[in-house]
Amino acid sequence: MTQTATSTAERTATRPLTVALVDDYDVVLVGLAHMFDSYADRVLIAEIDATTELSDSVDIVMYDSFAQPESDHDEISALVGNPRAGKVVMYTWNFHPDLVAGAQQQGVHGYLSKTLPARELVAALERIHAGETVVSDPPRRASPASGLDWPGRNEGITDRESEILALITQGKSNAEVATLTYLSPNTVKSYIRSIYRKIGATSRTQAVLWGVAHGFTPDYHRIDHWRGGP
After folding, report:
1. Which range has the worst mean pLDDT, 144-153, 192-201, 209-218?
2. What count of other Cβ atoms lies within 10 Å of the Cβ of residue 40?
3. What is the pTM of this model?
4. Residue 141 to residue 76: CA distance in whole angstroms
5. How would you class 220 by CB atoms within 10 Å of its CB: exposed for 0-12, middle for 13-18, buried for 19 or more?
6. What is the pLDDT of residues 94-135, one digit of tens each?
7. Percent of the chain with pLDDT over 90
8. pLDDT value, residue 71
9. I need a surface site. Which of 4, 8, 61, 124 has the fewest CB within 10 A?
């Protein structure tokens, strides 16, 4: 057994990792938290409420990229620089090389794919806590890991479409959505057309109103809890 594996095993035997989840949408946080239900002996979720401040220190902060400014260095550096966050991990489906490189330059300790099954996600978090920097292979399939949730899922909206609609509901233009998601403008337009069909909207105003009525507005600016230290 390697030194890293030994230290990870010793730590796990002592206590589970404490992990805080950062995202502005409760439904996303709860879905992610349930990913760890079968691994309570190895991972303890410190919070799942988007409106609740966390004051304790945690081993790992997972920054879920859903409708979040993944390319915003200020937000990422606020997490990395906070003394209550032992390690910072990006949790995303977007593996654009610029995003991965930017996150690593900011000092992020892991860049993990939303396609990872729970067992692989837990193992990756334990490796990160043990001192490794872990970057998932770019996902080759579009399906998110089983158990994840997002606004509009019960309406037949996919995870990618949900994020686009959330950004639109936040007031972002097509160009801003493309910039934030690293998608081409034509790809963004294609997603929007599909969303309109699914929700019966014929205009952006109708889509925004639908989004507001169906949980696509942020619950709270979670990143504010992590600015400025304890």
Report:
1. 144-153
2. 10
3. 0.80
4. 26
5. middle
6. 888 888 888 888 899 999 999 999 999 999 999 999 999 999
7. 47
8. 56
9. 4
Q: What is the pLDDT of residue 69?
A: 66
Distance CA 112, CA 94 (A): 10
Q: Mind giving me the DSSP string for the chain?
A: --HHHHHHHHHHHH-PEEEEEE-S-HHHHHHHHHTTGGGTTTEEEEE--TT----S-EEEEEEE-TTS-TT-HHHHHHHHT-TTEEEEEEEES---HHHHHHHHHTT-SEEEETTS-HHHHHHHHHHHHTT--EEPPPPSS-PPPTT---TTGGGT--HHHHHHHHHHHTT--HHHHHHHHT--HHHHHHHHHHHHHHHT-SSHHHHHHHHHHTT-S-S--GGGGGTT--
Task: Specify whether the CB–CB gap between 90 and 104 falls below 8 A.
Answer: no
pLDDT at position 163 is 93
* Residues sharing a CB contact under 8 Å with residue 176, sequence separation 6 or more, in sequence order: 167
Longest dimension (CA), the chain: 60
The model's pLDDT over 52-80, given as tens digits with 9 standing for 90+, comes to 555 678 899 998 888 876 655 677 888 88
